[in-house]
Specification:
Blueprint: H1 2-21, H2 26-94, E1 109-114, H3 117-125, E2 131-133, E3 137-138, E4 145-151, E5 160-167, E6 182-187, E7 199-204, E8 224-230, E9 246-252
Antiparallel strand pairs: 1-9, 2-4, 3-4, 4-5, 5-8, 6-7, 6-9
Helix pairs in contact: 1-2
InterPro entries: MATH/TRAF_dom, TRAF-like, TRAF1-6_MATH_dom
Biased composition (Basic and acidic residues): 26-35
Pfam family, one: TRAF-mep_MATH
Length: 253
């Protein structure tokens, strides 16, 4: 806008100068001086705008550089958190009793019987042992190796949290990665197995970039699943707990 005004005034000055050189009257000369004064003022203003614009551009570049550094730092922190989660999972896996290392099945189905439910739940509440691992199972005879992990008092939200864990298996070199399967998790109603009111949920092992479903570099990947699959307040509504036993079923298609 300022540049447009300046250009218009410059043209007017040229016109007045041409008129004055041709013997124009005093009014034209007075208007010429006034126009020249306005041109000088606008030239100064235009210069100030340019300096301000350059200053703003430098400020924007500095802000962008700061944002880029923060993004890089966040990426490093995310990577560090993922590595720490893997280390924690490895340490937890080392505490799993040897009896639980026996392969449960090679059919892609896990039927996990959790006995002494009340004691294990109380241990979780007291912080003695907050999580349990199931026996490992395979998706097929030469498929993916997996296990389940359950937090008996929830993983932060006060409800039973159930996860699938992809483990390092014997046939990983022959499999397609990342792991991409449909996963169905069930808490069985023991009062009516055929038509019971089972708690069921399912998900697909996506996104493919998730560290949970890449080829394992350590014994276990980061667990993935449901933080609130088992509402602890609803367990007594049906026979989800019977004779102090709970049954978890996981199907991997």
């Amino acid at each position: 806008m300022v540049v447009g005004k300046l250009t218009g005034l410059e043209r007017r000055v040229e016109s007045l100068e041409s008129s004055a050189s041709g013997g124009g009257d005093t009014r034209n000369r007075s208007e010429l001086q006034e126009m020249k004064s306005k041109v000088r003022d606008l030239t100064v203003e235009c210069g100030n705008f340019r300096e301000r614009n350059m200053s703003l551009e430098r400020e924007v570049r500095d802000k962008v550089a700061i944002i880029d550094r923060l993004r890089s730092r966040m990426d490093q922190m995310d990577e560090s958190l993922a590595l720490n989660a893997v280390k924690i999972t490895d340490l937890e896996s080392q505490r799993v009793p040897r009896a639980q290392q026996v392969i449960h099945s090679y059919s892609g189905t896990l039927l996990w019987k959790i006995e002494s439910y009340q004691r294990k739940r109380q241990d979780a509440i007291n912080g003695v042992k907050t999580a349990l691992y199931s026996p490992p199972f395979y998706s097929a005879q030469y498929g993916y190796k997996m296990c389940a992990k359950i937090y008996m008092n929830g993983d932060g939200l006060g409800d039973g949290s159930l996860y699938l864990v992809v483990k390092k298996g014997d046939y990983d070199a022959l499999l397609t990665w990342p792991f991409q399967k449909k996963i169905t998790m069930m808490l069985l109603d023991q009062g009516n197995i055929a038509n019971g009111d089972h708690m069921i949920d399912e998900f697909y092992s996506v996104p493919p970039r998730s560290a949970s479903f890449q080829r394992p570099k350590s014994d276990m990947n980061i667990p993935s699943g449901f933080q609130c699959l088992v509402p602890l307040g609803s367990l007594n509504n049906r026979q989800y707990i019977k004779d102090d036993v709970m049954f978890i079923k996981i199907i991997v298609n």
